[in-house]
Amino acid sequence: MSRLQRPRRFLWKLIGLPSRLLYGLGLGPLIGRWVLLLITAGRKSGQPRTTPLQYEEVDGAIYIGAARGRKADWFRNIVAHPQVEVRVKSHRFQGIAEPVTDPVRIADFLALRLQRHPRMVGAILRSADLPSAPDRAQLEKYAAGLAMVVIRPCG
């Protein structure tokens, strides 16, 4: 790991600390409307890795977008080990995560998120030099650099 990657990784962990603490204190129902805890197995170590992430629930499945695309550590862990644990609100369950890199499916997910959270997702899109309400072609072009996972509960 380069000297530049260490501070970035530390900052990402620091950003996620409040969510992990709130879940640890039993306050998951308070923030679980927006943030879940995803527990993956490290792709090299096999050790549990906990990552707080925003999500959407669609027809009983959990959808999570990876803004860093295929480079996100948690996404790479899922590619290596698709069995995951999810803590959302006051629930905890085991699931199988399906990595998705198809820009059309990711654009569908982004369109849903934009519909449900127009201000937040619009701000994210504007930060990527897109209009806050992009057309379908712009959304698919943007989605080409992203990734997502769909988690379905086991059993």
Fold and architecture overview:
The chain is 41% helix and 30% strand. It has 155 residues and is α+β, with helices and mostly antiparallel strands. The protein has one domain (5-153): Pnp Oxidase, Chain A. Strands 2-1-5-6-7-4-3 form a 7-stranded antiparallel beta sheet, with helices on both faces. A hairpin with a 6-residue loop joins strand 1 (35-41) and strand 2. Helix 4 packs across helix 5 (118-127) and helix 4 packs across helix 6 (136-143). The longest helix is centred in the first third of the chain and has 20 residues, at 5-24. It starts with a helix and ends with a strand.
Keywords:
single chain, 155 residues, alpha+beta, Pnp Oxidase, Chain A, seven-stranded antiparallel sheet, globular
Give the SSE layout.
Blueprint lengths: L4 H20 L3 H4 L3 E7 L6 E7 L1 E3 L2 E6 L6 H8 L2 E6 L2 E10 L2 H14 L1 H10 L8 H8 L3 E7 L2
Antiparallel strand pairs: 1-2, 1-5, 3-4, 4-7, 5-6, 6-7
Helix pairs in contact: 4-5, 4-6
CATH topology: Pnp Oxidase, Chain A
Q: How many helices?
A: 6
What is the ordering of alpha helices and beta strands? Answer: HHEEEEHEEHHHE
Across the major sheet, the strand order is: 2-1-5-6-7-4-3
The N- to C-terminal Cα distance equals 39 Å
Main sheet specs? 7 strands, antiparallel
Task: Give the number of domains.
Answer: 1
CATH architecture verdict? Roll
**CATH fourth-tier homologous superfamily:** Electron Transport, Fmn-binding Protein, Chain A
Text of the CATH class:
Mainly Beta
C-alpha-based Rg, rounded: 16 Å
Look at the helices and sheets and give the structural class: alpha+beta
Q: Which overall shape is indicated by the principal axes computed on the Cα atoms?
A: globular
